[in-house]
Amino acid sequence: MLPDLGKCALLALLTVALPMAASAQDNGLVLYGAGSLREAMTDMAALFSREHGIAVRTDFGASGRMRERIEAGDKVDVFTSADIGHAAKLVADGKASVMAMFARNDLCLLAPADRVSAGSAGALDALLKDGAKIGVSPVKIDPLGDYTAQLFDVADRVKAGSGAALRGRAIVIDNPPGTPPAQSGDHVLDALHNGRISLAIVYCSSKARFAKLDPTLSMVPFPPELTVGPQYGLAVMKGAKPEALLLALTILSPAGQKILAASGFRPVTSPDSP
Length: 274
Fold this sequence. Notes:
By secondary structure, the protein is an alpha/beta fold. It has two domains: 4-104 and 231-267, D-Maltodextrin-Binding Protein, domain 2 (3-Layer(aba) Sandwich); 107-226, D-Maltodextrin-Binding Protein, domain 2, CATH 3.40.190.10. Helices cover 39% and strands 20% of the residues. It is built from eleven helices and eleven strands. It is elongated and about 55 Å long.
């Protein structure tokens, strides 16, 4: 059976009233997503297109920037955010009809293997080591930055004074529109390679991608006492094509949740194993 949260999300999506005047046109649906969802939502769009014969055009970036583009007038059918806050704001502002949480993630420490030799148990010590320069994402613009700020607050409760120390070592890595492509394939890796930072806080779901880009690096999840639990939310826009509802349900479906799990996310609506 689905968890209560999954049931509520499915019920809300099934009963939401979307305009039915137009069907999907030749250009199909438009899905905006968080950068961390690029691989998963690209696969999701392909699944949806195969099953329904409707093309899905995707675009990815920091969730806050993608939300701002929608607010500025971009025509989008479904928005998938790395947090539930940006999706909820679109609903609250009357730009989206409904939202639902569709996945969870975790935070990991990305660094050369010799800096985190103790594994998860040594993650906080690695961040607090003399000379550590911590790569972080921008707050408000990128939910990863907000989750990192929460992590620093939790760390301060685990080890008094560590919150201020971590903030003092944080270096924001951002790639706003117009930023040249990363030489390594990722701007965080560029910063690691050129010495601007010595380690970084990233989503655990990106483990496979970072391993492919630089197999010399280690990615270690933070221990349970430092868990902050990223929650991903989707929103169906007002005025979206009716088929946008099918796309949202595909993301919440067992097949969609399987894609998310394969991409390193923690599903929220997968059926219990027999």
